[in-house]
Amino acid sequence: MVYFAESADGAEANGATDEQVEVLRAAARTGELTPAQVTPLLEPYFDCLADHGMRGEFDGTMKVGPNVELPQVVVAYIDLPMETEAQIQSAIELQRACEDTYVGYAWKAIQLAPTTVEAWDADFEARRPAIAACLAEHGTPTDEGATVDELVSAALAVVERTGTSCISAG
Length: 170
Hints:
Blueprint: H1 2-13, H2 18-30, H3 35-38, H4 42-51, E1 55-65, E2 68-76, H5 85-112, H6 114-137, H7 148-162
Antiparallel strand pairs: 1-2
């Protein structure tokens, strides 16, 4: 699949590990990238964090697509000075460098893969009538042909005004 091949090329060009690039190349060959392929890349990422005074740990899971969950990762900046803006930015840059090198390209690829985006779109379309009904019920009717962006914008206005999350309706 072209998407994963391009992701692999980008990862390789930007200094990602051979392991991360190979995960993406395997996905290009099969057309699929799974959590089981991405999750093992977290161990060397956590090692990199530890080498730079940070700690990475798992904190449950996060849904990145319908039927696609990845471990939720939390990073603690335990042994880094964080008093000034420059120190904070330096720590963030170190964390991002570890992420990009060990797992970041694969992490992004699984979330933005065409199959994941299509699944989210299908999920949203299946819930569209319930979302529109919720919006109307809370004083924000929408046109039948409203775009996803228009519905999301209306839903944000409703949640700000009433505290009700219409986007999760259905």
